[in-house]
Every structure is written in C-alpha cells, then in structure tokens.
Amino acid sequence: MLIDFIQHQLKQFDEMASRIQAAPEKYIQFDSVSDFYKAEWLKDFPKGTTWAATGLDNGAEQFYAIIEYRSHFLSISCSEQIEIHCGVYGQ
Question: Which of 4, 33, 36, 68 is the most core-located residue (most Cβ within 10 A)?
C-alpha cells in the first residue's frame, strides 16, 4: 500500500484548521504577535506550514494571521469579532 504523504499532510492541515474554526477561544488568545509565534498548537500543523501575523503590538487590539500549507490556507482576523476562513487557493 502506498501512502501519499502530501495528501496526508493536507488532511492534517485541514483537520487542524477545522479544530480552530470549531473552538477559536481555545487557540486565539494573544497579547502580542510574539505570543502567536510561540503558540504550541502551531506545531500541530504539518511540517512545511508557514504563518505570519500582524497587529497586537503597541497596544493594538486588532490581530490578523495567515497560516498556509501548499495551496491550503487558514486566515484569522480579530477585531471586534473573530473571523476565521479556511480554504484552498484557486478554488
């Protein structure tokens, strides 16, 4: 039996993104951008996943992050409310 590692990793990414969407309060609690980069749950994404965050510095209350693996993405926007979108680029 052959295992398609890319498909396995895409599934891993999608499952983690779904967990964050289902319970954002468990994952999205940061006082600074530095806190985002230190989040332990980022390690639950497949190896090769990239992420970037903006906001929260200098007393800002707004926060934006993008997490990507290949063509899959998870975007998180926090201002007055939390908005989370995940999907596949080009679809």
Answer: 36
